[in-house]
Amino acid sequence: MGNARTSxxxxxxxxxxxxxxxxxxxxxxxxxALDAYSVVTGMAGxxxxxxxxxxxxxxxxxxxxxxxxxxxxxxxxxxxIRYGSSSAFILAPIDRTVTxxxxxxxxxxxxxxxxxxFSDLQExxxxxxxxxxESQPGSxxxxxxLWIGSNGIVQASHLLNSTGDRGRDAAITDLLGxxxxxxxxxxxxxxxTVVLLPHSEEKPPDCSLPGRHTK
Length: 215
Prior knowledge:
Helix content: 25-40%
Oligomer: single chain
Largest sheet: 6 strands, mixed
Strand content: 15-25%
Structural class: alpha+beta
Shape: globular
CATH architecture: 3-Layer(bab) Sandwich
């Protein structure tokens, strides 16, 4: 199932990758650059907060495909791209020949496993937030810290920023309470910190797909 899903996502990306878009994104902190990229392309991204905050992007200028622009943007960051669909991507560290052990003593999680997990996490978070009209993703940027049990149940959560709407913040917090998300690898340090990036207004996420409908 995993290979079939990846193949399908790559096919979707390929179909949309030939469209050329005009980019003018200066070099800047990666978090802000990804926000600008998402507005221009209509693509949503998932990236660990600490990765986006400590790195800088390369500048991107000219007419390029979304994939070409993203690869230029990430030049020198040591981050790899995994596409969840034609309109969603996940960023994760590229495996190095020698991996260092995290400060908390947990074993390093291989990139392939990390990427697969964050792809599943993005899908389950999208399904969760699509349950209510006020929390439907796409129009806001949100940093989250999640503590997820070995059964996939959210044990605790913390919003790192407001979405700009107190009602939406409350709805998201309520939805996360005891929610069932993708089960994390045992070696993945917690809390799991992620940033959900916005789509452009012209291309919101499709909450009409099976399992993504609002109630």
